[in-house]
Write a structure and sequence with these properties.
Layout lengths: L1 H7 L10 H14 L51 H8 L4 H17 L4 H19 L3 E6 L2 E6 L10 H16 L5 E6 L10 H6 L5 H19 L4 E6 L3 E2 L1 H7 L3 E5 L3 E3 L10 H7 L5 H10 L2 E3 H6 L5 E3 L4 H13 L3 H13 L5 H16 L2 H12 L5 H13 L1
Parallel strand pairs: 2-3, 3-4, 4-6, 5-7, 6-9
Antiparallel strand pairs: 1-2, 7-8
Helix pairs in contact: 4-5, 6-8, 14-15, 16-17
Length: 404
């Protein structure tokens, strides 16, 4: 990699001109950081052990038992709503501007094929890129119990974040909000890397960007992260490999960050000429000022255990049990009162920006507003009767009172 990496891609994560070449570049980038490849395809490792309740799954492989799988999603539900082709297009619908630009390039490149040589090669590359955008969902969605599982699906590019990934994650969050029976969103990834950061290598190969274009891309990423931090329902990151730069931010912004022991975390931006600006805004909520300077100014990579020690990771999960543990956490969440869970998340989002007096005023207000809810009455009644609470009935009662 050496000189090529230094000259072409002094950045975090990315893709190259073709899936095979991109894979080599991204892998070399990870190796340059001192992070090895993980998962069932790594040399010297056998098939991962451990089975999920859905029929067995290898972490990083994306292979569930027949009860789950990762089917394409229709406009308002999951598998079976529409054909595979139209469903795949739906999943990238929010990335339509990117697709439109690529298809426009395809049209120009097809005309250029008549002139042969270099132009023909460029046309072939553009056609391939456009076909990939249309046929491969950037985020795979599935339902398991009360959870929506969103799986990043660019393994050849180390699941680097681009507009299609961002659109796919927004789609998953939208679907979960629209479904009252969905209580949590689990974010994980295909392949052996969770997310290698923003897809800057591909952006560099597309040519120089203006300030306005760079600003729009940064704002797009910031909106996703801001939404994830204040999202109404519980979020769980199941980190199956390296999570670097914006990928580390994506993982740690979730309410629960679960990681296998082989996972790695860090913000190597400065080592490649970038300012870790957006991620710094969110990192300050997880570590103290000295830790923050350490991570952002050295760009060093942390093991899962060290990330757990400093507060970036909730729990390090034994090899083979990542999704099992993620679903266990999701089950615990689903047994709690939905309105109380939502209000608790809202309060937790507010408290860091308040002094103690404002925080106490907010706390007593939340207490008073929730005290007479149907959820509280149902929770106490269920406890006294030693039965499971009926949160759906409580929700209907609270909504009926609100309409009066």
């Amino acid at each position: 990699m050496g000189q090529e990496a230094t000259h072409r891609a002094p950045r975090s994560g990315g893709v190259g001109p073709s899936p095979a070449a991109s894979h080599r570049k991204a892998t070399s980038f990870i190796e340059l950081l001192g992070v090895t490849r993980f998962g069932p395809t790594a040399p010297g490792r056998g098939r991962r052990e451990g089975a999920s309740r859905a029929g067995g799954m290898d972490e990083g492989s994306g292979s569930y038992g027949p009860q789950l799988g990762f089917p394409p999603c229709g406009p308002r539900g999951l598998a079976g709503s529409e054909s595979s082709e139209s469903s795949n297009l739906l999943l990238v619908a929010r990335g339509a501007p990117i697709m439109a630009r690529r298809l426009e390039r395809v049209s120009r490149a097809s005309e250029a094929q008549r002139y042969g040589g270099t132009m023909a090669k460029k046309a072939t590359k553009s056609v391939k890129a456009a076909n990939e955008v249309q046929s491969v969902p950037p985020v795979l969605l599935a339902r398991e119990g009360t959870s929506m599982i969103a799986r990043l699906n660019r393994p050849e590019q180390m699941n680097a974040i681009n507009s299609e990934i961002i659109a796919g994650l927004h789609d998953a969050l939208d679907r979960a909000l629209d479904d009252e029976q969905t209580r949590s969103v689990i974010i994980t990834a295909q392949g052996s890397t969770f997310c290698a950061g923003v897809d800057v290598v591909h952006a560099a190969e597309e040519g120089p960007r203006s300030y306005d274009e760079s600003l729009a891309e940064a704002e797009e990423l910031a909106r996703l992260f801001r939404r994830l931090r204040s999202y109404e329902k519980v979020t769980i990151a199941a980190v199956n490999g390296a999570a670097l730069g914006s990928g580390c931010c994506l993982a740690t912004l979730c309410d629960f960050t679960l990681a296998v022991g082989a996972a790695r975390f860090g913000y190597p931006d400065v080592r490649y000429g970038f300012v870790p600006a957006v991620v710094a805004v969110f990192l300050r909520g997880f570590v103290n000022a000295k830790r923050m300077r350490d991570l952002l100014l050295t760009g060093r990579i942390l093991s899962a255990d060290e990330a757990h020690e400093i507060g970036l990771v909730s729990e390090v999960v034994p090899h083979g049990g990542l999704m099992i543990r993620a679903l266990d956490v999701a089950t615990m969440v689903s047994q709690n009162a939905p309105r109380a869970t939502r209000m608790t998340k809202e309060l937790l989002e507010m408290l860091p920006d308040m002094d103690i007096d404002k925080a106490l005023r907010a706390a007593v207000d939340f207490n008073a507003r929730n005290r007479d809810s149907a959820e509280v009455r149902e929770g106490l009644s269920a406890h006294a009767q030693r039965r499971a609470p009926d949160w759906n009935a409580a929700r209907d009662a609270d909504e009926g009172r609100a309409r009066v």
